[in-house]
């Protein structure tokens, strides 16, 4: 996602090149298609100016109406435009009428199905030619994410005539077809799930990884390669690109890809957290800068291969079920989704006591939510008001 306010500002050329690098000829090239460029915005003119810049280098422009993060609230974009339907109409319609490529939009639901449907119909009337419905409200995030509502998404699909993509609840490969069946949608979109397993949309029959990743599709329909192999493949791609890749983005991707083992291999987790990759004058990582990432991923591969080889019998016997969610936990050398175990529901007495205790505490006494980061993994810095969110590449499958 790119911040349109900053992207259209001609005095911020470096920001443009960092977020959509046209000069190097890779982003938006024939090898980078199909491509939809997503912007967040709250000003139609700024959005149009930004979209015009990338128009010839993409297949569509998407407007993010779903970001629920605090930065979106402060910047007044994403899901926090949800109550200003007139502005949303103008944002979509100006692109629909002034661009040569289609405009699409991704949004979150309201608690009410009826209001969600009317919202989706307004987005369609404004000119969106594909809409993506994330079946969570803007309050459902972080520890309170919960499940996405397929009932809401189904109602949206039944109410509009343009293609609808569903978003939410996609952890394993089989969740894709389950989502399509439940919602009737034309496609499925996933973001976070792919950060932990970049092969999420591949079936078990799709494999170029070491032996042991393919199993009976009835047991594990999706493809779960060894995460160290994914990490090394990712680093290989980064090292060949002319386009700059942020060192913090590389580190973030590696922490997510190799997460199943980093809690065990704490020395590698600490090494990864300490990496300070240097960039050259052209903004690209030097060979030395990326080599330490490669060394860590290679060491992880060596350890994971050895630990997998030590397992007696089929490795599928190592699959266990997380008791609070019923979801599978795969062997720690394989790429797999990250999910939070459900907290046990408190008893009625505990609930009353907790409620009473809560009302007695002042706002200043409430402790902040603990960080989800562990070890020496760097917590994200609080972004400035106009700072963009980190890009997330999103794929879909046809329904």
Structure explained in plain terms:
The chain is an alpha/beta fold and 399 residues long. The chain has two domains: 2-168, TIM Barrel (Alpha-Beta Barrel); 203-344 and 372-382, no CATH class. It is 39% helix and 10% strand. It is built from 15 helices and ten strands. The strands form two sheets. Strands 1-2-3-4-5-6-7-10 form an eight-stranded mixed β-sheet. Strands 8-9 form a two-stranded antiparallel sheet. α10 packs antiparallel against α11 (247-257) and α10 runs antiparallel to α14. The longest helix is centred in the C-terminal third of the chain and has 23 residues, at 287-309. The protein is globular. The two termini are 25 Å apart. 33% of the residues are buried.
Question: Which secondary structure elements does this structure contain, and how are they paired or packed?
Answer:
Blueprint lengths: L1 E2 H4 L5 H7 L16 E5 L3 H11 L5 E6 L4 H6 L9 H14 L4 E6 L4 H14 L3 E5 L15 H10 L4 E4 L6 H10 L3 E4 L1 H5 L30 H14 L6 H11 L1 H4 L3 H9 L12 H23 L10 E2 L6 E2 L18 H13 L34 E4 L1
Parallel strand pairs: 1-2, 2-3, 3-4, 4-5, 5-6, 6-7
Antiparallel strand pairs: 7-10, 8-9
Helix pairs in contact: 3-5, 5-6, 6-7, 10-11, 10-14
> Order of strands across the widest beta sheet?
1-2-3-4-5-6-7-10
The radius of gyration over CA amounts to 22 Å
CATH structural architecture of the largest domain: Alpha-Beta Barrel
CATH homologous superfamily label of the largest domain: Aldolase class I
A few lines on this structure:
With 399 residues, the chain is an alpha/beta fold. It has helices at 4-7, 13-19, 44-54, 70-75, 85-98, 113-126, 150-159, 174-183, 192-196, 227-240, 247-257, 259-262, 266-274, 287-309, 348-360, and strands at residues 2-3, 36-40, 60-65, 103-108, 130-134, 164-167, 187-190, 320-321, 328-329, 395-398. It has 15 helices and ten strands.
């Amino acid at each position: 996602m790119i911040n349109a306010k900053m992207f259209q500002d001609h005095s911020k050329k470096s920001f443009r090149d960092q977020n959509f690098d046209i000069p190097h000829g890779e982003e938006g090239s024939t090898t980078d298609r199909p491509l939809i460029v997503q912007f967040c915005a709250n000003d139609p003119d700024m959005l149009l100016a930004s979209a015009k810049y990338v128009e010839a280098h993409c297949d569509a422009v998407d407007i993010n109406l779903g970001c629920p993060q605090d930065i979106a609230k402060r910047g007044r974009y994403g899901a926090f435009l949800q109550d200003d339907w007139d502005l949303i109409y103008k944002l979509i319609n100006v692109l629909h009428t002034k661009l040569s490529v289609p405009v699409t939009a991704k949004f979150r639901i309201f608690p009410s199905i009826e209001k969600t449907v009317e919202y989706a119909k307004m987005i369609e009337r404004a000119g969106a030619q594909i809409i993506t419905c994330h079946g969570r409200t803007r309050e459902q995030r972080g520890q309170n994410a919960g499940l996405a509502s397929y009932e809401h998404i189904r109602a949206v699909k039944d109410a509009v005539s343009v293609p609808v993509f569903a978003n939410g609840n996609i952890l394993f490969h089989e969740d894709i077809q389950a989502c399509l069946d439940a919602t009737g949608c034309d496609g499925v979109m996933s973001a976070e799930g792919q950060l932990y397993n970049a092969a999420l949309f591949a079936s078990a029959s799709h494999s170029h990884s070491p032996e042991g990743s393919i199993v009976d599709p009835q047991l594990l329909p999706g493809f779960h390669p060894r995460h160290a192999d994914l990490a090394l493949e990712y680093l290989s791609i980064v090292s060949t690109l002319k386009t700059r890749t942020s060192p913090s983005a590389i580190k973030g991707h590696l922490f997510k890809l190799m997460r199943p083992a980093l809690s065990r291999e704490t020395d590698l987790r600490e090494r990864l957290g300490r990496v300070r990759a240097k960039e050259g004058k052209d903004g690209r990582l030097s060979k030395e800068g990326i080599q330490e990432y490669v060394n860590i991923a290679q060491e992880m591969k060596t350890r994971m291969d050895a630990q997998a080889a030590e397992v007696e019998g089929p490795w599928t016997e190592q699959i266990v079920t997380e008791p609070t969610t019923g979801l599978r936990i795969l062997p720690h050398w394989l790429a797999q989704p990250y999910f939070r175990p459900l907290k046990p529901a408190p008893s009625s007495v505990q609930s009353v006591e907790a409620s009473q205790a809560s009302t007695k505490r002042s706002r200043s006494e409430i402790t902040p939510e603990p960080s989800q980061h562990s070890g020496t993994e760097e917590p994200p810095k609080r972004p400035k008001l106009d700072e963009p969110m980190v890009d997330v590449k999103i794929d879909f499958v046809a329904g």
